[in-house]
């Protein structure tokens, strides 16, 4: 008897140990498929700032799988599935042995499969590790996985996972997507009959199609608003799309639709000019919140690459980049009263760069304000050459131009030759109306409450005075007149700053527009790289930007703030110096409060005296006045020291000559030398032709007791 008892105890102990080991295996054995399944994406419901549905994000192959916590699923919906699919769900541990016996008996009796024994847990196991083969081994694996699920998850977690992933056909997975797909309802709006209809349809979706068996079924038309914007949200770091069930964005569909209509109309009007596409970005100036994002004129227009996102595409922006350069110039010693040379100039050495204005004219001395507002090219390149390319690129990096971090564009970057995106430009342009504070554009509304304190904690990339001066210049209608006249394109019933740009023979035309309330960026052109036919001009995107602002603000808006450390004084319109009694034209301009500006010396009773650097420009046309060269330092203005030239054997030697121009000097006669040998003497203006021969040459000029020299290389 004692031996039998000991044997029984050993058997029980062995069974206990085996059961414990089995439970440990069920609970802790590697189950990577479950880990991946619990991380798989869901169809995020994306709303605008007013609660309007933008999209229910489709997953791979167009499947929609919305997630709803079990606590928010109506009780009768869950009951419909447990009663129809697994009546003993809450009492078994993954396998319903009674159901297996019943199914085996019924199927044997009928000699065909008329009943199944899969529990909800087993069906979930099949979703986690799908296999089309229904062999005994596959079913045994599903049963084992069901036991593992029961050992690791609660009944609530199992039912929640099942109800949110069960496939219904028609690219709908989960009860929430099924309710929307088949009945055009939110899950909470389903009736009990509709819930039972769905619970039956999962057995055989093709046989029990709700569209055919339910009188209340109504197909849902999934909205497809702002496709480029949604794609952008999906690709940002730590994107909530596919991870969260709902996302509220900063976008406003009413603004979006207005922008889309304006772009479509413009493309329809100018399509014959190959102006076949465009992009628009609208943001709140003070907070940086994205309000509208139009990536192309028509997302479904394959002929014109409509799925390309023009907001993020890199294009040459042309002159629309100049405000950032001029702002840096103000912080590098230049003033609003500074006069910039708009004259023939050469930059560089072996790679000589000779910029031209858009109208192929030279305006001579131009005030800082007019040069920026009228978008003159030569003064911009002059400023960049004075400031330094590295300093400018560093400033652009602080403004969010990541596309330029590895760029080596040369001085032409002053004219927008380096490719950037409308996203980057709009983001950067908004800093001026925000007192120089940089805030990255954002689009996910995570219940943040933006205040003036939040903005104050942004990154100060430009001094407050700098930002306010640039805002004042770009909203100055009179200052734009030299380059654009008094175009109605820039006329708004409230203060607004504009900057436009063209590039690649009008292939890319850009407009930036900003007020203290909103900032708009517009690009137009085509994605195919074809040259636009005719000079369509940047007024087209500027009109769109203006219409968007007027639609948002009506007839009212805040004024731009004035720079506190500057005051307005009357200055000479030509020299930028303090207006004198001989100055024929004067304007009011900002001058530092702490500084006194010099009285104009350009205008005298005897006429106008231009500085020596304007000598070449002065001689281009018959102008009134004179150039005050005598008494200024002797200087060879062309060519530049270190310039490289190439001798052409196909051209006769007598035609290959270099024109040397000199200004300044104390006398009215100058001597020119090449490698120490006298070439000739000339009276003012000091211009001399030098024959070209290969090799390094030293060109020197002697004027009275002064001399200067340069070295060139002829290859």
Task: Give a verbal description of the structure.
With 715 residues, the chain is an alpha+beta fold. The chain has four domains: 59-213, Penicillin binding protein transpeptidase fold; 259-553, 3-Layer(aba) Sandwich (Beta-lactamase), CATH 3.40.710; 566-610, no CATH class; 635-714, Immunoglobulins (Immunoglobulin-like), CATH 2.60.40. The protein has 22 helices and 28 strands. Strands 8-7-15-14-13 form a five-stranded antiparallel sheet, with helices on both faces. A five-stranded mixed sheet has the order 22-28-27-24-25, with no helix packed on it. A hairpin with a 2-residue loop joins β4 (167-169) and β5. The radius of gyration is 38 Å and the shape is elongated. Residues 448-454 have low confidence and may be disordered. Residues 57-218 form the Glycosyl transferase family domain. Residues 626-704 form the Penicillin-binding C-terminal domain.
For the structure shown, list the relevant keywords.
715 residues, five-stranded mixed β-sheet, alpha+beta, EC 2.4.99.28, 4 domains, transmembrane, 32% helix, five-stranded antiparallel β-sheet, Penicillin binding protein transpeptidase fold, 22 helices, elongated, Beta-lactamase
